[in-house]
Design a protein that fits this description.
about 180 residues; mainly alpha; globular; MST-like; Mini-circle protein; DinB/YfiT-like
Length: about 180
């Protein structure tokens, strides 16, 4: 049984195997982002801090893209679906960050939530097909690739970094603080 903290986040296991520990920390960080974005309207999701253009809405859309990029494209070499497959990335390399301002809170939460659900399924599939050592099916042009362990660790880092940003933005909105 997973312990749930006062913010509804699943606590990572205290003593578990490597896969369960990595997944526990990833789920904790996903839930932290969800908590930081909870209850906010479009103005809240579009708020910035200082000179930064980063928003919580942009963060949700960016992390939806990151989920798809690593767990669908890299891990399984599957094509990225909508909306990613129609973006002119050469025209705007930060499209997901910029375009989020035109999306409703419901659209942003759904896009991120659906990406997370697909990622969970992709990880379950990969764990059954080689475990943490299972190599990604996509590679860099020089042929190098990464394994599932690397992808999970990278995703924990990605969420942890952006959750620090989310802390600052959320505190500036309504004073809400906490890890």
């Amino acid at each position: 049984m997973t312990d749930i903290d006062e913010h509804g986040r699943p606590e990572p296991p205290l003593a578990a195997g490597e896969a369960d520990t990595l997944l526990g920390f990833l789920e904790f960080h996903r839930a932290t982002l969800e908590w930081k974005c909870a209850g906010l309207d479009a103005d809240g999701l579009n708020a910035t801090v200082g000179k930064s253009s980063m928003t919580l809405g942009g963060m949700l859309k960016h992390l939806a893209w990151v989920e798809e990029h690593w767990f669908s494209r890299w891990l399984h070499n599957r094509p990225m679906g909508a909306p990613w497959d129609t973006v002119d990335w050469e025209a705007d390399r930060d499209w997901e960050w910029h375009s989020a301002a035109g999306d409703s809170p419901e659209q942003l939460r759904a896009l991120w939530g659906e990406a997370v659900a697909r990622s969970r399924a992709a990880v379950t599939e990969a764990l059954a097909d080689g475990g943490l050592d299972r190599m990604a099916r996509h590679s860099w042009p020089d042929g190098r690739s990464v394994n599932l362990r690397w992808i999970l660790t990278h995703m924990i880092e990605e969420y942890a970094r952006h959750n620090g940003h989310a802390d600052l933005i959320r505190e500036s909105l309504d004073g809400q603080t906490g890890e």
